[in-house]
Amino acid sequence: MLISPKKLSSVWRLNPKGVLHIGAHHAEEMSLYYELGWGHMHWVEANPILAKELAQTLDLMHNTIHQCAAWDIDKKLIVFNETTDSQSSSLFRLKQHSVHYPQILHKKTYKVETRRIDCLYSAPPPFTFVNVDVQGAELQAIKGMGDLVLAVDAIYSEVNKEELYEGCAVVHEIDEYLKSYNFKRVATRWIIGKGWGDALYLNCERNKSHVYSKFINAIDSLPFYLKQMFSIFLIKTRLMPLTKRIRDKLLQR
Question: Full-prediction pTM beyond 0.85?
């Protein structure tokens, strides 16, 4: 997550009662969700091996795991494209992603079952925060929530400026869809030059932080972009290897 759960709590005043995380991977955010007291965690993961690992390793008293692909059509078999870097696996094939990350390759395809979130849960849902990280299929996953989004305080989603995956939605399409449910994109963190980032959408009926969002976002995003620009400067001036060697020597002392 480019905006950490701690930032979402301290800066955007989020204190959800339950989390839905679509695109679980290894549940890397679990410890932070738990530390912040965000309630029961609901994980959706399309990769059957990863989903099985989660079911075997997570405390099922505090976690629920669904092995399926979140989509806007329920119980449909759909092709899943697994990559050499499992984090980039998607229901869509690689496109501009291959330009920005040529080291990540298509590995294999297999079919997975889709589920609509509003078929897995009834209203009111047992979560008020949704994190969507499904490599280009974010809009379909959100559409599959139907009117359940009305009971959600915030949606945190990966977004794209360009077609990193064939046929994936770009950010303005997600903006327009969520606008119809009175959500506003209040913060965006872009990875410079890579065509993707993360966005925070607030439910304007349930969270009043959106009123001051421009000011809050301007202040909070500055360190994030300065850090990226500094790293780019080091790489372009070929100082990055030297910087790493100096850091490693200091750590050895």
Answer: yes
